[in-house]
């Protein structure tokens, strides 16, 4: 009800203001009885008029009640005496600008009222124009906005206080963050120092293990050759095969140890090809059964529609046999060994996927036993070289590290899940092969003849003894040979007019490595066959790991018969 009454009173006031503007008087229309002092009662608001030059010409009686100044004293520019001295100049200037621009006037300033105290007032004035557009007079409204300004000032002070507190809090947070970053950096340095110490400890363990194993192997080789030399000097040749076989056995064990070390360091020479994992497991099944013995039940669970994977099949065989042997040793009283294959896709953000394995399609091979299991501290060190929980003399501690290196070099992963007393599960993730897979059941052709048929072979090797041995092996088979001691010398031969049917080159050559030599040779002699000899090959040498057509690789140390067969196979295509 009060709101409706106020709205009705305001409507009458607006009507009175319109009448005053039309008649130049502040007396209301006949019979209405509008009291201008109602403006003061409803709100501290004063309506006034001024001439075209901005001199006040009319004020209501409420002006006296509000300000204590007589209306006659306020006419003209007299009202400015009530404006606060600090605001008077700005108000006068604003009023002058409004008159000269014939626009509107609006200002807020402090004015002294009846009780002698200053309050904030807001004034707004608009010009009243005649038929020709000239300003006839000004009509204005002045109202008390002190409470609003006080509220705004309080809000401003509050905001300034809040901003100060926020700034102080921000400064405190920045200081705390700086301290935290310093602590994190210090912790990072401490962790880096710890990792370095652990790394040096692992290097010491690695070198110690290598020295121990190689000393044993070298002792076997040196002892066998020394005895053989004495027997030959005495003409006792009947025992020669025995000592030769002993030396060869030590050499083969040393070669196997080297390959395992290269596998751990992910720098072994791999020959990746499409592999059907289940077919490979089936081909090893009989060997696995003989290895684990009758007290362990072997179960093979193939996946339907298993994808081909891309890896070195020989290294995969070695990895599976190592896992089977580890499982057998973990079940001395018997148990169950399960080999499973499965297709799997790892999506980005999958929390169950290995952390350092890229999203994509993989073939998963899981080897699970019901043996003794491993505690967490053993799992954490399981892939370290020469770390083993087996008794002294049983195992080298390189089996799992070799599997880890093979999986990583194949762009896959290996994971161990184990619980003491409940068994162990080792899972290999190998990337899916996308492309045309080889026909199932394809069999290799018959062994090829190793004898030469008039071909010429260029041998490039910087190790003189090895180069001499390769030349002798090929020469005994009837091949014509050309030798070069390094890459640049080999390139000169390639650039000559000499016939070359096959390039046999070491990869790690000085000046120009084997791959660079092969590429340059193929530019000059398109289609030239190349056989790389290597005991160490980084991915940088072969790019993504593939050899071009007409290129093959043989791993050092190699048997003379293996070299002869590989060379003949290359000539036979």
From TrEMBL:
Species assigned in the record = Cystobacter fuscus (strain ATCC 25194 / DSM 2262 / NBRC 100088 / M29)
Against NCBIfam families, the record matches this protein to:
sensory_box (TIGR00229)
Occurrences of domain Response regulatory (ranges): 456-571
Reactions catalysed: ATP + protein L-histidine = ADP + protein N-phospho-L-histidine
Q: Which residues are in the PAC domain?
A: 105-157
Give all 4-aspartylphosphate modified positions: 506
Q: What is its EC number?
A: 2.7.13.3
**Keywords for this entry?**
Coiled coil, Kinase, Phosphoprotein, Transferase
Regions annotated as coiled coil: 159-193
- A Pfam family this chain is assigned to: HisKA
- Please give the name of this protein: histidine kinase
Domain PAS as annotated: residue spans: 48-102
Identify the residues that the record assigns to the Histidine kinase domain, covering every copy: 209-434
């Amino acid at each position: 009800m009060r709101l409706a009454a106020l709205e009705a009173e305001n409507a009458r006031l607006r009507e009175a203001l319109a009448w005053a503007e039309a008649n130049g008087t502040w007396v209301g229309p006949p019979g209405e009885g509008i009291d201008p002092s109602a403006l003061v009662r409803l709100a501290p608001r004063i309506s006034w008029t001024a001439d075209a030059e901005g001199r006040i010409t009319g004020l209501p009686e409420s002006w006296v009640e509000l300000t204590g100044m007589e209306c006659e004293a306020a006419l003209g520019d007299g009202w400015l005496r009530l404006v606060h001295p600090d605001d008077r100049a700005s108000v006068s200037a604003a009023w002058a600008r409004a008159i000269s621009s014939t626009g509107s006037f609006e200002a807020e300033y402090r004015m002294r009222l009846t009780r002698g105290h200053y309050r904030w007032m807001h004034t707004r004035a608009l010009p009243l124009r005649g038929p020709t557009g000239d300003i006839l007079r000004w009509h204005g409204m002045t109202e008390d906005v002190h409470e609003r300004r006080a509220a705004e000032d309080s809000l401003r002070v509050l905001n300034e206080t809040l901003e100060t507190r926020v700034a102080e809090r921000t400064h405190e947070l920045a200081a705390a963050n700086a301290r935290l970053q310093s602590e994190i950096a210090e912790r990072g340095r401490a962790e880096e120092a710890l990792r370095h110490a652990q790394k040096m400890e692992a290097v010491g363990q690695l070198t110690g293990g290598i020295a121990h194993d190689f000393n044993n192997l070298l002792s076997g080789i040196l002892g066998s050759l020394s005895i053989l030399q004495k027997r030959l000097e005495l003409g006792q040749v009947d025992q020669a095969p025995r000592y030769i076989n002993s030396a060869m056995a030590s050499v083969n064990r040393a070669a196997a140890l080297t390959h395992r070390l290269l596998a751990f360091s992910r720098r072994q020479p791999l020959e990746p090809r499409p592999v059907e994992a289940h077919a490979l497991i089936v081909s090893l099944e009989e060997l696995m059964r003989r290895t684990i013995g009758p007290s362990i039940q072997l179960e093979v669970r193939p996946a339907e529609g298993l994808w081909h994977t891309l890896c070195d099949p020989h290294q995969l065989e070695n990895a599976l046999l190592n896992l089977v042997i580890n499982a057998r040793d973990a079940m001395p009283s018997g148990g169950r060994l399960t080999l499973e294959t499965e297709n799997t896709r790892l999506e980005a953000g999958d929390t169950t996927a290995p952390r350092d394995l890229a999203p994509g399609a993989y073939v998963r091979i899981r080897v699970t036993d019901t043996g003794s299991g491993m505690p967490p501290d053993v799992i954490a060190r399981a892939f370290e070289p020469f770390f083993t929980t087996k008794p002294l003399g049983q195992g080298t501690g390189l089996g799992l590290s070799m599997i880890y290196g093979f999986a990583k070099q194949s762009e896959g992963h290996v994971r161990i899940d184990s619980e003491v007393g409940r068994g162990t599960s080792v899972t290999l993730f190998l990337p899916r092969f996308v492309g045309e897979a080889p026909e199932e059941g394809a069999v290799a052709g018959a062994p090829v003849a190793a004898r030469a048929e008039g071909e010429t072979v260029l041998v490039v090797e910087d190790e003189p003894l090895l180069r001499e041995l390769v030349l002798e092996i090929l020469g005994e088979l009837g091949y014509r040979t050309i030798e070069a001691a390094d890459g640049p010398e080999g390139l000169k031969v390639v650039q000559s007019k000499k016939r070359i049917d096959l390039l046999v080159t070491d990869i790690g050559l000085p000046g120009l490595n084997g791959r660079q030599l092969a590429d340059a040779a193929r530019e000059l002699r398109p289609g030239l066959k190349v056989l790389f000899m290597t005991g160490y090959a980084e991915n940088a040498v072969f790019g993504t790991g593939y050899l071009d057509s007409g290129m093959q690789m043989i791993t050092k140390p190699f048997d003379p018969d293996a070299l002869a067969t590989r060379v003949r196979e290359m000539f036979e295509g």
